């Protein structure tokens, strides 16, 4: 094992795909997955790789300074890929301080500890921070977010991620910590907690429940298959230039209502239902406070400089995602039981 990487948030949606890719593709690396297992962390996401010799799971909190210090001492990490975060915008509106604690203080704790252990020998070290396009704010009908777009976060979630990005760059400029950042568009795919639009819609359609769509469904998001994001993270970790930011996206914009209609067509087909059955479940709900109108990523820098491109067309990725949810009922049942249900009945009031 010639290289030890700490991956934070590896039991979550994107993190589990990143852990799997690194464990499988780099048997010569030691991968340590640190996750606090909040409501969003699910070790079932990693059942297939949990016994691999180059994989270790550690339960812990990135805001716990003493614990993070011990972890660095024990494993002598060469790299950090930092995904742990509170990640759901609606939850950030209800409980903003939790987001500041994990996303800002947690990131600063990791940066400070990496600096402490690496400062005498920065050779071969890398701190890779995973962030979101939401830090750039909201676009009108035209234009794209580039790496030069000024930050303009609007929600407590995006403000906490923007803040963490700034701290990462501060550690680079002030302490020369070898950092790299990527800002990605909305992800979809397997292992996605069903509080987010696509898995929630699949779950509700399957169970003949209303499919909540904010406002009139006019908001535009740029969607990327999660396994393509994990491939981009692999590329940037190994080839990205220190001190740089890379935007990740697939030039794949969809209005929420168009996406849900496409999903309904796929679901009718998969479930053998008459055309239009799933679409009849669409229910418009009160819009999210401060709802950003449009996000769209320009990933040209990543395409041209590092040669990464998405591997899937959206329709293909969406169909794969539906197939996964329909054939992993046990996973879905486990995460949709208990507190999750109460949370959703409070959250989505009918208009
Ligand atoms: P997620 O909510 O599914 O997973 C987050 C993981 O972090 C969970 O496993 C959770 O248990 C863990 N975690 C939370 N607080 C922690 C703490 N204090 N200490 C240790 N672990 C903790 O999130 P995700 O959608 O997989 O997002 C992962 C990262 O990617 C986040 O940083 C997010 O901002 C970023 N991102 C997400 C998207 C998206 O579309 N989901 C897009 C761009 C960027």
- How much beta, percentage-wise? 15-25%
Query: How many H/I helical runs?
Result: 12
Distance between the termini: 56 Å
Largest sheet: 7 strands, parallel
Mean pLDDT: 93
**Each distinct ligand:** nicotinamide-adenine-dinucleotide
Arrangement of strands in the largest sheet: 3-2-1-4-5-6-10
Order of helices and strands: EHEEHEHHEHEEHEEHEEHEHHHH
Low-confidence runs: 338-345, 347-351
Q: How is the secondary structure organized here?
A:
Blueprint: E1 3-8, H1 13-25, E2 29-35, E3 55-59, H2 65-75, E4 79-82, H3 89-94, H4 96-118, E5 126-132, H5 156-175, E6 179-184, E7 186-188, H6 197-206, E8 211-214, E9 220-225, H7 226-239, E10 245-248, E11 253-255, H8 256-271, E12 282-285, H9 300-306, H10 314-326, H11 329-335, H12 339-347
Parallel strand pairs: 1-2, 1-4, 2-3, 4-5, 5-6, 6-10, 7-9, 8-12
Antiparallel strand pairs: 9-11
Helix pairs in contact: 1-7, 2-4, 4-5, 6-8, 8-10
Bound molecules: nicotinamide-adenine-dinucleotide.
Nicotinamide-adenine-dinucleotide binds next to helix 1, helix 4, strand 5 and strand 7.
How would you describe this structure to a colleague?
The protein is an alpha/beta fold and 351 residues long. The chain has a domain of 212 residues: Rossmann fold (3-Layer(aba) Sandwich). 42% of the residues lie in helices and 17% in strands. The chain has twelve helices and twelve strands. Strands 3-2-1-4-5-6-10 form a seven-stranded parallel sheet, sandwiched between helices. The chain has a three-stranded mixed sheet with strand order 7-9-11. Strands 8-12 form a two-stranded parallel ribbon. Helix 1 packs across helix 7 and helix 8 packs across helix 10. The C terminus is likely disordered. Nicotinamide-adenine-dinucleotide (NAD) binds next to helix 1, helix 4, strand 5 and strand 7. Nicotinamide-adenine-dinucleotide binds next to helix 1, helix 4, strand 5 and strand 7.
């Amino acid at each position: 094992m010639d290289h030890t990487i700490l991956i934070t948030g590896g039991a979550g949606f994107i993190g589990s795909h990143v852990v799997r890719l690194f464990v499988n593709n780099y048997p010569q690396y030691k991968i340590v997955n640190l996750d606090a297992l909040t409501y969003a962390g699910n070790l079932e996401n990693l059942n297939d790789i949990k016994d691999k010799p180059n994989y270790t799971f550690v339960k812990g909190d990135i805001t716990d300074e003493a614990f993070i210090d011990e972890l660095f001492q024990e494993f002598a990490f060469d790299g950090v890929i930092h995904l742990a975060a509170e990640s759901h915008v609606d939850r950030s509106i209800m409980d903003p301080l939790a987001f500041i604690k994990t996303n800002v203080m947690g990131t600063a704790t990791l940066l400070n500890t990496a600096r402490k252990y690496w400062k005498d020998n920065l050779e071969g070290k890398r701190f890779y921070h995973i962030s979101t396009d939401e830090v750039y704010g909201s676009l009108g009908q035209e234009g794209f977010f580039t790496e030069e777009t000024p930050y303009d976060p609007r929600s407590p979630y995006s403000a906490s991620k923007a803040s963490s990005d700034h701290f990462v760059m501060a550690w680079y400029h002030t302490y020369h910590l070898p950092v790299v950042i990527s800002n990605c568009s909305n992800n979809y795919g397997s292992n996605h907690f069903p509080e987010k639009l696509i898995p929630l819609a699949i779950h509700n359609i399957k169970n003949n429940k209303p499919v909540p769509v904010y406002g009139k469904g006019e908001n535009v998001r740029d969607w990327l298959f999660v396994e393509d994001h994990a491939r981009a993270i692999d590329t940037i970790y190994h080839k990205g230039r220190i001190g740089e930011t890379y935007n990740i996206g697939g030039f794949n914009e969809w209005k929420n209502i168009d996406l849900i209609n496409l999903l309904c067509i796929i679901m009718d087909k998969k479930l053998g239902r008459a055309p239009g059955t799933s679409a009849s479940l669409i229910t418009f709900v009160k819009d999210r406070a401060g709802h950003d109108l449009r996000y769209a990523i320009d990933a040209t820098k990543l395409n041209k400089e590092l040669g990464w491109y998405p591997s899937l067309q959206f329709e293909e990725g969406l169909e794969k995602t539906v197939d996964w949810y329909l054939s992993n009922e046990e996973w879905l049942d486990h995460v949709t039981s208990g507190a999750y249900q109460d949370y959703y009945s409070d959250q989505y009031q009918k208009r």
